[in-house]
Amino acid sequence: xxxxNTLLTLTNFRSPFLRTLVPxxxxxxxxxxxxxxxxxxxxxxxxxxxxxxxxxxxxxxxxLCLLPVLALNxxxxxxxxxxxxxxxxxxxxxxxxxxxxxxxxxxxxxxSQWMEEKKNKKHNEDFLTRGLWGKSRHPxxxxxxxxxxxxxxxxxxxxxxxxxxxxxxxxxxLGARLGALAMAxxxxxxxxxxxxxxxxxxxxxxxxDKRYGDRKDYQEWKKNTPMFFPKF
Length: 232
Description:
Keywords: Membrane, Transmembrane, Transmembrane helix
Radius of gyration: 20 Å
InterPro entries: UstE-like
Transmembrane segments: 51-71, 83-103, 147-168, 174-196
Pfam family, one: DUF1295
Protein name: DUF1295-domain-containing protein
């Protein structure tokens, strides 16, 4: 059994229930870190057209994020068994995933703890600059992008091989392999695009710029702290 088959079996990620549950847990934890609410939806939930648009946008997001896994699930297990147990892309992908989810979870935990301390009057800071938030202005988003890149790396390492091509019914030509690579890469590319251009970084930066943009300490933190890629 290949490492990929082992992971799919252990996580039961072939189950549609878990495909929905895993991203939902991350979202729920993030909302909890924001004091039990997601302010991005304040103006959406009161407008049915906007709410419907957000619903279908999230459905598209989930589908594109899961595309590498769905593509792998289309390859029969008996076909995957012809692959080596461990490949270089397996190692790189798993390390990226573990590092990414660990980075995101740590950043969310630090923010949650910071907000709890603020609620308990242990500090009077208006924005978080400690821990990973002193290395990147959006460490949680960096972690999220990285973990999806890890999943895509594992998937791409299989889908472009002769085994993966045959399992999906592809011809194995250069175009077919590039298509398989695109099926894997669209997940982190789409997530990162959303974070940079739509619902992640722009909304957060705009909110904090409006609140603290005229403060010197905020300007210093923003100047000295990378927006996305952490600086150690």
